[in-house]
Amino acid sequence: MNDMRLTERAVTEKAKMSARGVQVHYGTNHALKDVDVDILDKTVTAFIGPSGCGKSTFLRCLNRMNDTVASARVTGKIEMDGQDIYDPRVDPVQLRAKVGMVFQKPNPFPKSIYDNVAYGPKIHGLTRSKAELDEVVESSLRKAALWNEVKDRLAAPGTGLSGGQQQRLCIARAVATSPEVLLMDEPCSALDPIATAQVEELIDELRAQFSVVIVTHSMQQAARVSQRTAFFHLGSLVEYGETGTIFTSPRDPRTESYITGRIG
Amino acid sequence: MTVGLLSLLLLVLAALGFVVGRQKAIASVKGDTRNLHSLPAYYGMGVALFTAVPAFALMLVWLLVQPVLIEAQVTGMILPEDIADGSSRDLVMSDVRRIASGMDVLAERGLPEAEFAKLVTDTTALKTRLADAGVALAADINPHVAEAAAVYRAEVATGRAWLAVAALALAVAGFLLAAMRVTPEFRARNVVEQFIRVLLVAASSVAVLTTVGIILSLVFESWHFFRLYPAKDFFLSLTWAPKFGGGSSLGIWPLLWGTLYVSAIALLVAVPVGLMAAIYLSEYAGPRLRSVAKPALEILAGIPSIVYGLFALMTVGPFLRDWLARPMGIGDSSSSVMTAGVVMGIMLIPYVSSLSDDIINAVPQALRDGSYGLGATQSETVKQVVFPAALPGIVGAILMAASRAIGETMIVVLGAGAAAKLSLNPFEAMTTVTVKIVSQLTGDTEFASPETLVAFALGLTLFVFTLGLNVLALYIVRKYREQYE
C-alpha cells in the first residue's frame, strides 16, 4: 500500500447519488441487505469485498441494470440529485444515459471504432450534424486516451483491437453520452498490468468531469484510484469512508481482516 | 449356409472370444487384476473384435463382389441369337436370375437336385413347375437360358459355401491370434481404442462415399443425356415440350424460372415472418412463453410437405383465386405460383425462425448489456447491436431455407400445377424442376431416350444449385463464428 496518494484526497462533500436501505433479492436469494451509501460528486468511489458480497449487485442498482434481470427485486430508495431513480415517472432508459457503465469484460459492438463511440450520441440524438458527431467521437476517444492509437483506422472493427484498447473503447463509448456518473464493474480484471495502469490513469482524469464508481478485487487499485471506499461483506455494507482511513485504520474488524488478506 | 446363420455363428464365436480373452487375462495374473495393464473386459473385447470384425468385413465385400463375378461368367453363356428382338441382354439376364430363384423355391419344397438336370432339358415342364413356385414367365424358356440359370444357381451355392468357410476360418484365426496375445503386459486398452477408431473412420467414410456415388451416378446419366440431346439446347432453349417418340424440346429455363419464382415468393413469406418470430422469441418472450412457443413453432417443421400440399390444393389455392386473382382479372386457376409460394413460405417459417433464434441467442449477453448501459431501448438494441451481430448467421439460415425451397416437390405438384411456362403473372400455373423430374420418370419408360434421361440432367443442375447455396451458407456462417472472441 505504499503507492496510496494520500495528498489527492481532497473532495467536495456534495452527494451526487444517495442510497438508503437498499435491499436486493434474486428470487429467494437475499443478495443485498440494507445498504446506505452516498456517492459524492466528482469523486472516485471504490467498492471492495470478496466475490459474491453484493458489490456488483449494488452497482447495477445505480443505473437500474437489474431491471433486465427478470428475477431481481430492488427495494429501498436511491436518489440522484434528489430525484428517486426508482420512481415510476423515471424512464430507466433516460437514467442509463446519465449513469454510464463499463463492464468487466470489454464488450465492443461488432461495428467500426467510430460507430462504437457514436452509438450513444446517435440513439439519444445528442448531435445535430455529422461534424458535431465527429467532434464528440474524437473528444471521447481523446478522453479515453485512445485517440492517438486509432485515429487512422476509425473504420476498422472495434473487435479487432487489443484487450486494453477494447476496454478504453468501451470507456470512450460510455463517455460519449456525457454521463454524470460512470459505473465501472471490475474494468481491469481482463487486462494486463500495462493496460490496467492506463485505465487507472484515465479514471483519475475522468474524475474532473463526473463521479466514478468502481468495483474492484484489487485493494491496491482501490487505494490508488479512489477517494472513498465501501467494503461489502456477505451482502451487507460493512464500512464506508475515506479511502486512506479505511486502509490505514478501519473501524470494523472484518474490514481489517479483509484488507490484510485474512478473509476473502 | 445362409448369411443369417453365418452371422449368428460369428457373433457366438465373438461372444466366446470375449469370455475366453477375459478369463485368460485373469488367469495370467492368478486373479489379481491390478497386475494387468488394462481392465479384464478390454482383453475380452479385443479378442471379440478381432474375431468378429474382419470376418464381417470379408462377408460384406464377398456379398458385394460375388454377384458381379458370377454375372460376368454366366452372361457369356447367352449367345446373341438367344436375345429376342426388342429385348436386351439385361432383360435376358434378369430372366436367368428369376428362374434361378424359382429353382431355389422348388428345392426348398423338396424337389431333389437330380430332377433339376432333367428340367433344364425339358423347358416346358420347367415353366409349369416355376409357375407353381410363383415365378411366372411370359415367353417359352430358351434352353440356353435354362442352362445359364442352372449354372447361375450352382455358382451362387458354391460361392455361399466358400464364403462360410472363409469367414469362419478368418474368425477362428482372429480368435486364436488375439487370444494368444493376451498377456499381463499386453496393452489391450490401447488396441481396443485403435480398433474403435478404425471402425468410426469406416462409418464416416460410408457417408462420404455415398455422396460421391450419388454424384457419380447423376453425372454419368447426365452425360448419356447430353450425348443424345445437345447441351446448348438444354441450357439455352426457352421451351419445354417433351414428346415421347422424338422431336421434344427440352429447355431448362421454364422449369428454372418456375423454381426460382416459387422459391422467391416462399422466401418473401418465410423470411420476414420467421425473423420477426425469432426476434420475439429470443429477445422479448419470457422463459415460460418461450418454452411453449418454440416447440409449437417447430411442430410446423415436422408436418410432411404433402400435407402442406393438400392445404395448398384445398384451401389456399381456391381462396387466392376467388378473392385475389379473379376480382383483379389476372388469373383463373387455383394452382398458381402464388399458392405454392405462400404455402411453401409457411412451411419454411419454422426453419428460418428456429435457426435464427439459435443464432440470435448466441449473441453474447455482454453486447446487450453494453447497449442497455448506454441507455438504448430494447428495440434499439435489437436493431442496432443484436441483429447486425447475428446477420451473417441469419443470412446462412435464409440460404439454407432457400435450398429447401428449391428442392421442394410435393407442394408444387399440388399447388402450382404442371405447366412449364415463362410468365411474370404469379397467379398463373407454372412448374418447377423437381416436379418435372418426377413426371419424366413416372410411367412405363425405358432409360434410353432423352425424354427420361433429361431427369438426371435436371437433377444434376438442381444439385449444383443447392450445393452452391449450401456452400455459400456454410462460408457465411463460418465467417460469422470468427467474429467474437
Automatic annotation (TrEMBL), chain A:
The record ties this protein, via SUPFAM superfamilies, to: P-loop containing nucleoside triphosphate hydrolases
| Keywords assigned | ATP-binding, Nucleotide-binding, Phosphate transport, Transport
UniProt keyword Nucleotide-binding present: yes
Asked if Metal-binding is a keyword of the record, the answer is no
GO BP annotation list: phosphate ion transmembrane transport
Q: What GO annotations for molecular function exist for this entry?
A: ATP binding; ATP hydrolysis activity; phosphate transmembrane transporter activity
Q: Could you tell me which Gene3D superfamilies the record lists for this protein? A: P-loop containing nucleotide triphosphate hydrolases
Where is the ABC transporter domain positioned along the sequence? Answer: 17-259
One cellular component (GO) term of this entry: membrane
Give TM segment ranges: none
Short name of one Pfam family: ABC_tran
Know the name of this protein?
Answer: Phosphate ABC transporter ATP-binding protein
Automatic annotation (TrEMBL), chain B:
Q: Where is the signal peptide?
A: none
Q: Which intervals hold domain ABC transmembrane type-1?
A: 256-473
Q: Name one GO cellular component term.
A: plasma membrane
Gene Ontology biological-process annotations:
phosphate ion transport
Top-level taxon in the UniProt lineage: Bacteria
- What are the subcellular locations of this protein? Cell inner membrane; Cell membrane
Kindly list the GO molecular function terms attached to this UniProt entry: phosphate transmembrane transporter activity
Topological category with respect to the lipid bilayer: Multi-pass membrane protein
> Keyword Transport, does the record have it?
yes
Q: Where exactly are the transmembrane stretches of this chain? A: 41-65, 161-183, 195-220, 255-279, 299-320, 332-352, 453-477
Which keywords does UniProt give here?
A: Cell inner membrane, Cell membrane, Membrane, Phosphate transport, Transmembrane, Transmembrane helix, Transport
InterPro entries for this protein: MetI-like (IPR000515), MetI-like_sf (IPR035906), Phosphate_PstC (IPR011864), PstC_N (IPR022182)
Q: Briefly state the protein's biological role.
A: Part of the binding-protein-dependent transport system for phosphate; probably responsible for the translocation of the substrate across the membrane.
Q: Tell me its family.
A: Belongs to the binding-protein-dependent transport system permease family. CysTW subfamily.
Designated name of the protein: Phosphate transport system permease protein
Q: Which gene encodes it?
A: pstC
